[in-house]
Give the backbone structure.
Amino acid sequence: MVSRHRRAAVGLGRCRGRCVAGRRVWRRLRKALRNTNLASIAGNYPPPAGYADAITYVIKSGASRVRIAPAPIPEYEAVTRELEPLRNALADIVSAGKRRMPRSCASNRVPENPRSDSR
């Protein structure tokens, strides 16, 4: 959840982390939300039968709510494509929230400064 005051709460199972979105991330999130037509794609898009442990995204803004488990289903392609910029903008907030989870949630944590290159 992200409030209009930039405060965010991230939950993974029983683990919770809270953070404040930086100004740059906040602007990117607001732009993605403005450019996503949630009202036209509002609805429930469950995973197909037999999909185990699917991650489900719930995005709500105003009266519009989208609940989707991204899956390779042709009917979901347009919705998934519409949500991609918004999901990308939320990724930084989720990472920040995961870093603030208790140590007992270590398997859910991300490195403080992930780097793909080694020196």
